[in-house]
């Protein structure tokens, strides 16, 4: 987004990755507003929206991108684990939309992009709550798209497959993911992070102005295999 001229606000629970990201973007000359916030907390969402409006006066695009999982693996999932995974993967997007929605409705325009996963279409072992939440995010996207269409707001969802992060991921795990992808992903490889970025840029742009309520799978065909 920043490469294309957008003024970007980024939030994260801690400064661990947020601070170096923000510093790197500022050094590169990109305008960025960064702050720590809990995306599952209603008050933090309001604080985030207030900061963005104070800095720039309006919000054009909301991207909800958060994820966590807890496996079953023969062991019952506790209530706390269940709530945690649902909050991270589904509730945070609901709260983000609820916080930003009134502003976009008042302006009569806006773009919402929810980041889901191929689990929204296809479940897998040891991902019971995660798959449930990601499928729920697809339905949230679809329903909100219908509710907000009269206000000129589009709501779409990106469902990525396997996208290792070479900067934060374990090198050995990334190598295993690349090797496994040759056998399990129809296109025979893992995804590159910029490929998700390109799709998000499309959904944020006027080029997608007639698209809403869609979940777009970018997984090399994995969800169809």
UniProtKB/TrEMBL annotation:
<dbReference type="Pfam" id="PF13561">
    <property type="entry name" value="adh_short_C2"/>
</dbReference>
<dbReference type="InterPro" id="IPR050259">
    <property type="entry name" value="SDR"/>
</dbReference>
<dbReference type="InterPro" id="IPR036291">
    <property type="entry name" value="NAD(P)-bd_dom_sf"/>
</dbReference>
<protein>
    <recommendedName>
        <fullName>3-oxoacyl-[acyl-carrier-protein] reductase</fullName>
        <ecNumber>1.1.1.100</ecNumber>
    </recommendedName>
</protein>
<dbReference type="InterPro" id="IPR002347">
    <property type="entry name" value="SDR_fam"/>
</dbReference>
<comment type="similarity">
    <text>Belongs to the short-chain dehydrogenases/reductases (SDR) family.</text>
</comment>
<dbReference type="GO" id="GO:0004316">
    <property type="term" value="F:3-oxoacyl-[acyl-carrier-protein] reductase (NADPH) activity"/>
</dbReference>
